[in-house]
Write a structure and sequence with these properties.
about 35% helix, 6 helices, 6-stranded mixed sheet, alpha+beta, about 290 residues, 2 domains
Length: about 290
């Protein structure tokens, strides 16, 4: 209903502009004694206004809806043991993701042949990148990343506990929302400590906050239960995400802060069995209209 009222107001303003433009054209035509076909001019103006209106409404709807994705890419190494950044980018483009939270990424390590894996994927996908280095590794760094169609306003990294391997939280702030990306520790105590840290940082944002990543825990776990005290699961936890060749558990998620109400339009796990050892998780959501 609100959308119809908004459209009506836009229509009225555009029609008002048409009449003003038409009047000016006619006045100028009379002044110059030109033989203008006034009906033809009006028709042309109406067509132009309709095109502008369609583009404007499409743009507004596109901004309200966004596809979020979480994908542990195993450094772009597929189940066929082939490292292929272009293939990962193809998965992202096929799902038309607006923001992708990614885990297990090498930055100029020996293992990756000195290649910044996230940069290569971003180049093939045509997206902006943000990177969080969790640990130094083989002459480079290893961590998590976020790819986005929209350039982030800001991005920062926060250290998270990990006894077997240090972890981190990557925060990318956008115009209308903020996205958290992480890869939890294998240690359950560290995972619980990470939840508290994430909740503390989430309090600092007034715009909607999404959390996505590999939580290394199942939906029935204590860790996910603790997360759900402050976050709502958007992804489909009934679908398993690991391992991709024979999925047996769900450990990859997308959440939204409980105080941020969004409508889930579609949420599922993509059936991509080769590109990584995890399946990509995504959710199409509609954010509330600004007041």
């Amino acid at each position: 209903m609100k959308e119809d009222v908004g459209k009506q107001k836009i229509d009225e303003k555009l029609l008002e502009g048409i009449e003003i433009a038409y009047t000016q054209v006619v006045i100028n035509a009379d002044r110059k004694h030109s033989r203008f076909n006034r009906n033809k001019i009006l028709d042309m103006l109406k067509i132009a206004a309709y095109m502008i209106l369609t583009a404007l409404l499409y743009s507004c709807n596109a901004r309200e809806e966004r596809t979020l994705m979480s994908y542990n890419i195993r450094n772009a190494k597929g189940m066929d043991d082939v490292t292929d950044c272009r293939r990962i980018a193809g998965v992202i483009k096929s799902l038309d993701a607006d923001v992708v939270a990614m885990q297990e990424i090498d930055s100029v390590t020996e293992r990756s042949g000195g290649v910044f894996i996230l940069e290569e994927i971003a180049r093939h996908a045509g997206m902006h990148l943000s990177f969080s280095a969790s640990i130094p590794f083989q002459g480079g760094k290893y961590g998590t990343g976020i790819l986005s169609k929209e350039k982030p306003l800001a991005a920062k990294s926060v250290a998270l506990p990990g006894r077997e391997e240090k972890r981190s939280l990557l925060i990318a702030e956008f115009k209308d929302c903020t996205v958290f990306c992480t890869h939890f520790s294998l240690n359950p105590e560290d995972r619980l400590l990470s939840v508290a840290i994430i909740n503390e940082y989430a309090e600092g944002y007034k715009k909607p906050v999404f959390l996505a990543g590999d939580m290394n825990d199942v939906p029935s776990s204590k860790v996910i239960a603790e997360l759900q005290k402050s976050w709502t699961v958007l992804s489909d936890t009934a679908r398993f995400t690991f391992s991709s060749d024979d999925p047996q558990i769900c450990i990859d998620y997308i959440f939204v802060r409980k105080t941020d109400r969004v409508e889930v339009l579609n949420a599922t796990v993509a059936d991509e069995r080769i590109a990584s050892d995890h399946l990509p998780v995504y959710a199409r959501v509609k954010c509330p209209e600004k007041q």
